[in-house]
Amino acid sequence: MEKVADLASDIGEYIRQQRNTAKISLRQLSKLAGVSNPYLSQIERGVRKPSAEILQQIAKGLRISAEALYVQAGILDLPTGGPVGDAIRADAELTERQKQVLLDVFESFRRENSAARPAAESPTADTTDTSPAADTKKESA
What we know:
By secondary structure, the chain is mainly α.
């Protein structure tokens, strides 16, 4: 039960931070999101845990990805993709559908390259041999 309260508090704090960053008042966001002012205030204070539908409305009002709120609320797992995925998700010029298509293509390329990579070239393998003998091996190859 305590974990649910923590999640509600975390998502509320995250929404407040996003609202403050966007320089939007609580009242303005409540109008943009179509959520009552008292309910939004309760969400921000961690008193209420919003549904996925309410999170989507708030995301729309904040002009951020609903996925970002879902991750923060614990509805979705943290997305993968590193800085490229983050850049795609953050691009305000793309629709949610366009972002998802780009992320799907990007992840398919990563999976394909990972499957094709020999074990010796794996990112976990130590390929940083800087000894003089390693230089000789490289030159003769």
